[in-house]
Design a protein that fits this description.
Keywords: Membrane, NADP, Oxidoreductase, Transmembrane, Transmembrane helix
Order of helices and strands: EHEEHEHHEHEHHEHH
Radius of gyration: 20 Å
CATH superfamily: NAD(P)-binding Rossmann-like Domain
Strand order of the largest sheet: 3-2-1-4-5-6-7
Pfam families: adh_short
Family: Belongs to the short-chain dehydrogenases/reductases (SDR) family.
Number of domains: 1
Protein name: Ketoreductase domain-containing protein
GO molecular function: oxidoreductase activity
CATH class: Alpha Beta
Strand content: 5-15%
CATH architecture: 3-Layer(aba) Sandwich
Largest sheet: 7 strands, parallel
Distance between the termini: 61 Å
């Protein structure tokens, strides 16, 4: 059934909207600003508490070409257009690189990188046909700095960041009114760290580093860390501001620290991160 919408209300499509995450908070923030929001997730029940009348929940798996394509087509059919498409879906991946399973590595790239690509390929041609629209990616400061025990997650976010920055350039050939925005998130108080399924294998060469590895995989996010609602409000305020143009936005706790680390020589930033998260020096006979 076609959605009843105000023709002036922006139509927003967001991936990865499970309860407790940034996508969920973005849905509420966009809806509060009068937008019609299509919230998506692999499981509808994970969005059951999104009760705002302007939020419509759809099942979408960003690792499936068919699911993403059909989801975008459904939104266009019901709402008539997509004004904002936000690639937010992501999964954690922590642990020593040598201990990662190839299956987990593939799953991380499939969600965190190819999920962005699938949404872009499904929705940007529609925006090009209308000569307007905004595509947004939820990137991460982790994509700009290598962190021990989080290398593959960092690699996936680096790819997502650079993919989006490339789209910022290429979209200029489609229309000056198509904007591509990279939102670089620092620390935000969500359930994301608790979603990590990593367990250090008993055969790991890095067993003596287990406490430090766990501290990276299960970073505690206390009240001093930015709340997802505050993060989402900042993103939505910037997204709805006119005129809209391609840009990179940086929000979250400790953003300034990562900016400083980016300015340091690589060897020095590596030294800092190893001191913070690396653990013990190598044990002779073990590594």
């Amino acid at each position: 059934m076609q959605a009843s919408t105000n023709p002036k209300s922006p139509i927003v499509l967001i991936t990865g909207c499970s309860s407790g995450g940034i996508g969920y908070a973005l849905c509420e923030a966009f809806a509060a600003q009068g937008c019609i929001v299509y919230a998506t997730s692999r499981r509808l029940e994970s969005m059951s508490t999104l009760t705002h009348p302007s939020i419509h929940c759809l099942e979408m798996d960003v690792t499936s070409d068919h699911s993403v394509k059909n989801g975008v087509e459904q939104v266009i059919h019901e709402a008539g257009r997509v004004d904002f498409a936000i690639a937010n879906a992501g999964i954690p991946c922590y642990g020593p690189v040598l201990d990662l399973s190839i299956e987990d590595a593939k799953a991380t790239m499939d969600t965190n990188v190819l999920g962005v690509l699938r949404l872009a390929q499904a929705v940007l041609p529609h925006m090009a046909s209308r000569q307007q629209g905004t595509f947004m990616t939820l990137g991460s400061v982790s994509g700009y700095s290598a962190v021990p025990w989080g290398g593959f997650y960092c690699a996936s976010k680096a790819a997502a960041n650079l993919l989006t920055e490339t789209l910022q350039m290429e979209a200029q050939a489609l229309s000056p009114h198509i904007a591509v925005t990279l939102v670089v998130a620092a620390a935000v108080r969500t359930k994301f760290p608790s979603n990590s399924k990593f367990r250090l294998p008993e055969s790991s060469l890095f067993g003596f580093c287990a406490p430090k590895i766990k501290s990276v995989a299960e970073i505690p996010l206390g009240d001093s860390v930015m709340a997802p609602s505050q993060f989402a409000d900042s993103v939505v305020q910037a997204a709805l501001k006119k005129p809209r143009s391609s840009q990179s936005l940086y929000y979250g706790t400790h953003t300034i620290i990562f900016w400083i680390l980016r300015l340091l020589p690589i060897w020095l930033s590596h030294w800092v991160f190893w001191k913070l998260y690396g653990g013990e020096k190598s044990h002779e006979g073990k590594i």
